[in-house]
Amino acid sequence: MRRLHEFLFVRHRHNWLLLLRFAVVGASGVLVNLLTLVVVKKLGPGFNQAIVPVPGTDFNVRWYHVYSTIAFLVANLWNFQLNRTWTFRTSKHARWWHEYWPFLAVGLLGQVVGLVLLTLLMHLDSPIHLSPTVLDDSTGFRTRLYWAQLIVIAVVTPVSFVLNKVWTFAAVRTHHPDLADPSHVEAVLTEDDGAAAGAAAGPTSAVPGRHDPLV
């Protein structure tokens, strides 16, 4: 039990801190997402109107798919800037676009999953659709689209955190020990010290490592 406690809350305390920061950023992103959704919903056609049919299916792309995607793009950019400058603190070590495109790719993957879930929550023939009787769209708090979007965000956010931590910001943090997970800093420093020592000793005393060619 003591080892488990040490493993979870001592060795990986930095991961919990990152998750907390990511959650704070995510919470602000939820507000940005919903605010954008409210604005585009008020400015555009009825959110349940069909736009184009999906080939080979009985489904249609509806305006709520478009509104959700616009809200996602705005919130995604907001979240990226805060995660880059505060959560993972990589803004001084990598170019903006170099980090944004994988962050956007992760977000788009999540958005695709989210749109499927959103459709299931909104479509009246779905077994998990939100009740149009309770959420009759009479007020903002009883608008089905808003609640469906909140559920989508709650489902997609944890997956996005994991993917962004291990991919989007990982490359930068790996090469900067001051940004790395404390449970891995020692290994990073050891590798860097070993590389520096090998360079100082010259090619004759180099020791083959895991990245060296086999001889």
Automatic annotation (TrEMBL):
Keywords: Membrane, Transmembrane, Transmembrane helix. It comes from the Bacteria. The keyword Transmembrane helix applies. Residues 21-169 form the GtrA/DPMS transmembrane domain. The keyword DNA damage does not apply. It is found in: Membrane. PANTHER family: PROPHAGE BACTOPRENOL-LINKED GLUCOSE TRANSLOCASE HOMOLOG. Belongs to the GtrA family. This is GtrA/DPMS transmembrane domain-containing protein. It comes from Terrabacter ginsenosidimutans.
